[in-house]
Structure formats: C-alpha cells, structure tokens
Design brief:
42% of the residues lie in helices and 15% in strands. The chain is of the alpha/beta class.
C-alpha cells in the first residue's frame, strides 16, 4: 500500500495541527484582532507616531485621490500603476529627506526585499546587524549573497567581517531605530567602517522618518548621510506618515538600477493612489508642524521614565518605541490582554518575533498623547504588570 493510500487526503496537513498545539503550549499562538472604526482604547500599539493616520488633511487627501484616480493602481508601475501622484511623492520624499532620488514601493517590506536583492547577488558579501527587521532578514535570504550576522550595534565586528570577506562587493545592513527596543544604530561609525573597507551601507529608517532628525527628516539625515554616494535608505510610509507603502532613497544611479532590476517593484502592483496622496499630505503637515517629531520623542521618554520608576524593566528610547520586559511569553500575553481589558492597547512581542528571545510589551508614543494619556497608561501598565510578575521593587 502506498503512503498516499495509508494517509488519505484529510491527513496531508496533520503536521500543521501538531505545530499549532506546540505553539499554543509555549504561549506563542497568535490571533488577528479586528478593531472597530470608533475604538475608544488608548493606542500605544500602532506605529502612528505623529497621530496623522486619522488627521482630516491626510485622510481627506486619500479620499479625494480615490475619487480622482480610482481605488487601486491597476497594475505594475511599469505598466499602468504609476501615476503623477507617485512621481510627486518620490520628488517630495527625496527633497524632504535630502536624498538625490527616491522610488516608491507598495510596502516597506517590498522596498527592503527589492533593494537587498537588486544590490547584491552571488558576488556580494552582506554584513547585517543580528537584530535587523524581518523584512531585511528575508531580503538577505533571497539575495544569494554570503551573509554574516554581526553583533548588535557592534561596529568593530562589522569592520572585521568586511576586512575578512571573500567577495569583492559588500553591503552593510542595519535598521536605524530597531523596532523591538527602540535603540539607535551608530550610523556615522558604520558609514566610516564601510568607507574604510569599500562597502555600501543600507539603512532601514522606517522608525526614524518623521521622528528623528531636523523636522523629522530621519536618522540618516541626522547622521549627515542623506546625500552620501554610498548610502541607501529605505523608509515606510505607514508609520509616522500614517499612510501605506514604502520607498528607497539614495543616489540616482541606484534608483535607476532598482527600476530595472528590483523584482518587488517590477512585478508588484503599484501603491494605491490614495496611499500616495495620504503620504504627500502627511509630508506637508510635517513641514508645517515641525514640532510633532519632538513631541513624540518626549512622550516616549516620559513614558519610559515613569514606568521605570514603578519598578518595570524598560528600554531607553532613542525615538518613539518603548519596550517593557515580561517574565515569559505567557505572562506577556496575559499582561497585554489585561491592559486591553482596561482600555489601553499595547503591543505584545514574543519569540520568534524578537531576536533576543525575550518577551515584552512594546509601546509606541505619539505626538498627540496628553499628560492624562501618559498618566493613564503608566497606571494601567504598572498595575497589570504587578499581576503578571513583571514589577520589581520600585526604586
């Protein structure tokens, strides 16, 4: 009797049930939780750092663009999916961030996959911080390059890997602001190591754009690298700009190369016109209200300091991300649910989403948080954290 006859079609995916049971037992099962349009919860979970996702100027621009251009892009940008809005957005992004040129993708994930696969290959060495975002990890896996993971924020280790590489071309890959703990990469030092060893630097500035730098121009701009001929930046339009999509910023010849070779640009449907218009409107708000980034960072630092004073283990935020450590995946899940039950929405990060395998609550500050919002968040998170076993003796 064949294996197929022994098992039958109903049992082909039995292995999935076994894996699901193991994840549930380890406290690692995930759930999709739809939120209502009129949610009254205090939002400390989204990446809407500047509070622009519901801003009438941004949402109104998206609605107007849908009526004018249609609900979708209708095709790849090289066929029918590129509109005048996309071109305008690329110009404004490059101008705002100080780069030579820009190329808009349908998501930040697609931008990272596209840039890493197009700028590497079998003749390339990639040296990546061991805590880079999942999209960058997937890009390195698809690159066919020789990949080395360097210690987190360890510039000497990066330099050593570059000096001893066996390939002529090289890329160093890092986040600017790391999405789990919110710490900042030493971009100037990394750029110096790259130049010493003939490497390009690729920086994912998803959590820096709109939050760090002059008027929110990003961490790469703040480090003085925006116009550098050997630095390429990726950004997300779905975080501080409150829209959707991603982009690559950098030297014009790099952007031209991506148009010809980046598969996630060539074969993907273009960014919806509504999202392009929303991002354009958000950039305009950012130019008109340059104090918003500073307010988001100040709120994050205030939140972190108050939670630390309550005896919690809290990261030191460089931007708008604050993480609070939990004793276990199960404790993190229960803690996050307890916060939601009291009207405070927080992120819950557990393995394998966290590179250090430590579970935590991930909090995001926003420019529009009030003093009352911060006080409420601190009270709820600290009180529920005590029940979750996350609070040590207050200092």
């Amino acid at each position: 009797m064949s294996t197929a006859e022994e098992t039958g079609p109903e049992s082909v995916f039995d292995w999935i049930d076994t894996r699901a049971q193991a994840r549930a037992k380890a406290g690692l099962a995930r759930r999709v939780r739809p939120r209502p349009a009129g949610s009254t919860e205090l939002d400390l979970a989204s990446n809407d750092y500047l509070g622009l996702a519901r801003d009438k100027r941004v949402a109104g621009a998206a609605a107007a663009a849908s009526l004018r251009w249609g609900a979708g892009a209708t095709g790849s940008r090289l066929v029918t999916g590129s509109t005048e809005l996309h071109t305008e957005l690329e110009y404004e992004l490059a101008n705002f961030c100080g780069a030579q040129s820009a190329l808009v993708f349908s998501s930040g994930y697609a931008a990272n996959l596209g840039v890493l696969t197009a700028l590497s290959g079998p003749g390339t060495a990639i040296v990546a911080d061991q805590q880079i975002h999942a999209s960058l990890i997937d890009g390195t896996r698809l690159s066919r390059a020789d990949v080395v993971a360097a210690g987190h924020l360890d510039v000497p280790q990066v330099a050593h890997a570059l000096a001893t590489r066996g390939k002529r071309r090289a890329l160093v890959v890092t986040d600017s602001v790391f999405s789990v703990d919110g710490d900042l990469a030493p971009l100037a030092e990394l750029a110096a190591a790259c130049r010493e060893h003939g490497s390009a630097l690729v920086v994912d500035d998803a959590h820096g754009l709109g939050v760090l730098g002059e008027g929110g121009r990003g961490a790469v701009h703040a480090a003085g690298l925006a116009k550098a001929p050997d630095v390429v930046t990726t950004v997300a339009l779905s975080k501080a700009l409150g829209a959707q999509g991603g982009a690559v910023l950098g030297p014009s010849r790099v952007i031209r190369h991506l148009v010809d070779t980046a598969r996630t640009f060539i074969f993907d449907t273009g960014l919806a016109p509504s999202s392009a218009a929303a991002a354009l409107a958000a950039l305009k708000v950012l130019r008109e209200e340059p104090d918003r980034p500073g307010r988001a960072v100040a709120a994050a630092r205030d939140l972190a300091e108050r939670l630390r004073d309550r005896g919690l283990r809290v990261s030191e935020p460089a931007a708008a991300v604050v993480s609070v450590r939990a004793p276990s995946p199960e404790a993190a899940t229960a803690w996050a649910q307890a916060c939601r039950d009291q009207g405070v929405q927080v992120g819950c990060f557990r393995p394998p989403s966290v590179p250090d395998q430590v579970s935590r609550l991930r909090l995001t500050a926003r420019a529009d948080l009030t003093e009352a919002d911060v006080a409420r968040a601190v009270r709820v998170i600290s009180e529920t954290g005590a029940s979750a076993g996350a609070v040590s003796r207050p200092r």
